[in-house]
User: Fold this.
Amino acid sequence: MGLLVDGKWLDQWYDTKANQGKFVRSQSEFRNWVYPESQFDENNPQHFPAEAGRYHLYVSLACPWAHRTLIFSKLKQLEDIISVSCVHPDMLENGWEFKHDSDFTDPQFSIDDPLHHFDFAHQLYTQAKSDYSGRVTVPILWDKQRNTIVSNESADIIRIFNRAFNEITGNHLDFYPAEKAKDIDQINDRIYNTVNNGVYKCGFATTQSAYEEALTPLFDTLDFIEHRLETNPYLLGEEQTEADWRLFTTLIRFDAVYFGHFKCNLKRILDYPNLNAYLKRLHDVPHIDETINLQHIKRHYYYSHKTINPTQVVPIGPSTLFR
Ligand SMILES: N[C@@H](CCC(=O)N[C@@H](CS)C(=O)NCC(=O)O)C(=O)O
Assistant:
């Protein structure tokens, strides 16, 4: 675990001292956008054109933020036009690595940097910006032509995937329709702060009060969603939206990791009948199971976070995620 300072790698754990023991997530740095031909402005350096074969997506199969982008790659049938590879689940002194390891092969995604054959993800960041300072995170959407990072923000990447390549793929499914945009943004905001990032605030808290301050709103939101799902199959009614998929990647990790490792243990998702059925409903959408690698997920958290789990022992359970 570390970060880049002026392009140099430093091995250092999250610093919570300045924030009374609270974990504060830093902002993503690369926020460019891919546009379809009709909206692309070649004079704007933040614009990248939608083209088949031009982009590569680097993910971690363990990471809930990267998982969103993999899901959108499946839902929007982008697999043939955007290549994907993943990092090794262990994130230790060198951060994310492309270390080949036959114990962690995935049937779909190889651990590899097929473009540069770099050993570490931080080399991608310094390739894109030689004096980059900040965290080295996944997902990373890479442009093979300009040899740089388009975006390292999953919330943006899934919106790019939702629209930019429609004319190329012919897939016009819309998970962020204009008429629901305001409601999606509103529920995303609550779920991001209290659930997606809320589990990290619990797990990375280094004081009792910072932990408790995060735990209460996390379970308030889960209770709120449980109630909402009594009458709706999805968060915003009858149709799946982006908001459901953003929540899904946290829920699928909850009982296996966040409940124990991050101390989010008031209840399991298995204890909420509606949330559990909802999780199964989303899990059963065609091709979604191909994006879930519980081995990478459990290994990453329990083995990489030595400050939380110094023995690095990875638990065997849970025996089931669904009723
Ligand atoms: N805002 C980013 C956050 C991504 C993120 O934090 N990814 C984690 C993996 S789960 C990471 O790479 N962490 C490395 C670090 O913080 O050093 C996004 O949503 O894309």
User: Anything to note?
Assistant: The pocket of glutathione is lined by residues 1, 28, 60, 63, 65, 135-139, 152-155 (CB under 6 Å). The CA atoms of residues 16 and 159 lie 31 Å apart. The chain has a mean pLDDT of 97. The longest helix spans residues 208-228.
